[in-house]
Write a structure and sequence with these properties.
By secondary structure, the chain is mostly beta strands. Helix content is 0%, strand content 44%. The protein contains no helices and 24 strands. A 5-stranded mixed β-sheet has the order 12-17-16-14-13, with no helix packed on it. InterPro entries: Sortilin_N, VPS10-sortilin. It holds the Pfam family Sortilin-Vps10. This is Sortilin N-terminal domain-containing protein. Keywords: Repeat.
Length: 316
């Protein structure tokens, strides 16, 4: 297979061949984007060509100079066997990048045993456009004993997110919510997911709710709306919505349905794209009963969807 070339244009008319640190063969470009200071970032992954390929799925990040023509590799992890990653660039936090990096998968091993524990993952933050990275530090004395490691040592105990589910809230003044678990970079339990909040742009985190769910912010982070994901264990169905009017420091709850109906939430959004508004929309399905039998979930739906309009305009 011939190598892949990257061509750059600054005027959409003439193109120049980019200088890459290595020839690109058997790769696919996952994403091309520009950072907050005008450099080009290439996310590249090895392409698996057949089932007999014994090489793991490796990934690299290349970043350009200010002209966008010369690229260098980013040393984003000391473990060069990591292969899957996801980067999130919140536009309202200039220079900030969240990265969730996970181990490569050896597809030649057809006897891989997948468990609820995820090994070797790292979730990190950079506040200087990717030049340096640090772990997501958990500062939460109230819940410190509930974690399986010592949160006073963030190099060994930090917030770990999921590369396929790295969620950030609407534009805000540094108020961010994320679903994840606390652990070291060796292993953490995906079943122990909680919702965490940061009020300093992602540098430090604390528990907002002891469950995962849907969330959205308004009034640039002063308003937060949260609804837990239903588990359906022992008939556990969702009927409460939680909201905070002080950046997640205290929470109130609101009963969404009466004794006859419950809601299976699907989407929660702020109606103002820039995050400044105080109105939200929650969509979902109405259900009557739900039960869990082994690995099977039995849900009785009413034949219609439900839409809630939530307005905090008079709250301040």
């Amino acid at each position: 297979m011939s190598s892949t070339d990257i061509w750059i244009s600054n005027d959409a008319s003439t193109f120049q061949k980019a200088q890459l640190p290595t020839q690109l063969r058997h790769v696919k470009v996952i994403k091309i984007r520009e950072d907050s200071i005008g450099r080009i970032i290439l996310l590249i992954s090895t392409e698996i060509t057949n089932e007999e390929n014994a090489d793991p799925d490796l990934s690299e990040i290349f970043i350009s100079d200010s002209q966008g023509l010369k690229f260098s590799p980013v040393e984003w992890t000391p473990n060069h066997q990591f292969g899957n990653f996801r980067l999130t660039f919140p536009d309202f936090l200039k220079g900030t990048i969240f990265g969730s990096f996970h181990p490569s998968i050896d597809y030649s091993n057809h006897q891989v045993n997948y468990t609820e524990n995820i090994a070797g993952g790292e979730t990190k933050i950079s506040v200087d456009n990717g030049l340096t990275w640090s772990n997501l530090k958990v500062v939460d004395e109230e819940n410190a004993d509930s974690f399986g490691c010592d949160i006073t040592r963030p190099e060994r105990c930090s917030l770990q997110g999921y590369f396929y589910n790295l969620k950030l809230s609407n534009p805000s003044a540094g108020i961010i919510l994320m679903t994840g678990s606390v652990g070291d970079d060796n292993e953490f339990d995906r079943k122990d997911r909680k919702t965490f909040i940061s009020r300093d742009g992602g540098l430090t985190w604390r528990v907002a709710h002891n469950s995962s769910g849907l969330y959205a912010t308004g009034d640039l982070g002063n308003i937060i709306v949260y609804i837990p994901s239903p588990s359906y264990k022992d008939g556990d169905v969702q009927s409460k919505l939680y909201f905070s009017l002080d950046q997640g420091r205290t929470w109130n709850q609101y009963e969404l349905a009466d004794a006859l109906f419950y809601i299976h939430p699907l989407e929660l959004i702020n109606t103002t794209p820039d995050g400044s508004g105080s109105k939200f929309i929650l969509s979902g399905h109405l259900i009557t009963t739900a039960s869990q039998e082994g690995n099977n979930t039995n849900i009785s739906y009413i034949a219609r969807s439900v839409l809630y309009a939530i307005d905090f305009s008079a709250a301040f």
